[in-house]
Model the fold of this input.
Amino acid sequence: MFGLSELAIILIVVIAVLAIKKGPELTRSTGKSARILKAEARAAKEGGPNPQVIQGEVVEPGNTTASN
Done:
């Protein structure tokens, strides 16, 4: 039977194999997310355009259709 140390080694090897396979994709998506976050933080700091208000209908809670 396998002991705890053998199971831990097998688990480490499986994680290493999966990390090698998914590593480049994970680092690429992390870098992309960081660039997006930096751009959004820069835009928020600079101010940018004010949000526009779009007129619409008000729907009361509980009503599934808007009244005209």
The chain has a mean pLDDT of 81.
